[in-house]
Amino acid sequence: MGAQLRVYKRRIRSVTATKKITKAMEMIAASRVVKAQRKVAASMPYATELTRAVTAVGTGSNTKHPLTTEAETATRSAVLLLTSDRGLAGAFNSNAIKAAEQLTARLVAEGKEVDTYIVGRRGVAHYNFRERKISEQWTGFTDEPTYADAKNVAGPLIEAIEKETAEGGVDELHIVYTEFVSMMTQEAVDARLLPLSLETVTSAAAAAGAEESPAKGEILPLYDFEPSAEDVLDALLPRYVESRIYNAMLQSAASKHAATRRAMKSATDNAGDLINSLSRLANAARQAEITQEISEIVGGTAALADATAGSDK
């Protein structure tokens, strides 16, 4: 019985140590998600004004541009998947990967080849384990992404869509990331970034928090641009793509920290429940041990009394 009690006490010490770790991780994730939310809010004014500018150029001119012109027959697409470098975030990474696989299957069903670009070690590991081709990958900054990171990711994607498909280019650019809805809700979503369309700009404007955006089907006036609409698009569209990717990275970072906080809170609560259960078992084992010791003492006393009584006769 003593050995069983020692096992319970050892497990209680182990689970208590684990509980301290998960509680600390929960608190760290909670502080990080607040910082990530602030960064998302801070990026909104720039994203909003940039979206408005792109809206004006994209809908107010007849200029054809590689980043705004729909291919007659799209045959190749690029998909950018945003995951995290670390785990311990519940279904955060698996949901994003699942959304990317569903998007890829849909594009393949439409007769398109898909080039996959991945941010985050978890996504890279998933595709490498299944021996799937990755066009390009980036890791090491998913917890706290910067605009420079978004620019590095956007560069190869913009180059790919500016090239002809015969030269290794793509006709479309899609992004899959996790949208931060609230501390309790994060949703894996996919969106088409390029070619830019009125519908794409409208949804981007809404996501960026723009108060005014063109309605679908609305006929907008044409404008004159200096030096030219094409030059303005050359300057604005790369910034637009960088801004969208940066915002998606910030949303994913906030979502990952929220998912980690929730997972660590669940682990902490479960550890507490397990400690209570083990404590009850330990108390029962200790009580049984005490009862056995008392029984042995009583039995020994009775035996000694019998033996003494027999010797007196």
What does this structure look like?
63% of the residues lie in helices and 11% in strands. The chain is of the alpha/beta class. α3 (121-129) links the parallel β2 and β3. It is elongated and about 125 Å long. The two termini are 39 Å apart.
Could you outline the blueprint of secondary structure elements for this entry?
Blueprint: H1 2-59, E1 76-82, H2 92-109, E2 113-119, H3 121-129, E3 136-138, H4 147-162, E4 172-180, E5 186-194, H5 198-208, H6 229-312
Parallel strand pairs: 1-2, 1-4, 2-3
Antiparallel strand pairs: 4-5
What percent of residues adopt helix (DSSP H or I)? 55-70%
C-alpha geometry: elongated
The helix tally amounts to 6
Contiguous runs where pLDDT drops below 50 for at least 5 residues: 208-221
Q: How much β-strand is present in the residues?
A: 5-15%
Euclidean distance between termini CA atoms: 39 Å
Radius of gyration: 31 Å
What characterizes the major β-sheet? 5 strands, mixed
Count all strands and give the number: 5
User: Class by helix and strand content?
Assistant: alpha/beta
Task: Give, in order, the helices and strands.
Answer: HEHEHEHEEHH
User: Which whole number gives the mean pLDDT?
Assistant: 83
- As laid out across the biggest beta sheet, the strand order is 3-2-1-4-5
List the main descriptive attributes of the protein structure presented here:
313 residues; alpha/beta; 5-stranded mixed beta sheet; 5 strands; 63% helix; elongated
Task: Give the structure's gist in a few sentences.
The protein has 313 residues and is α/β, with parallel strands linked by helices.
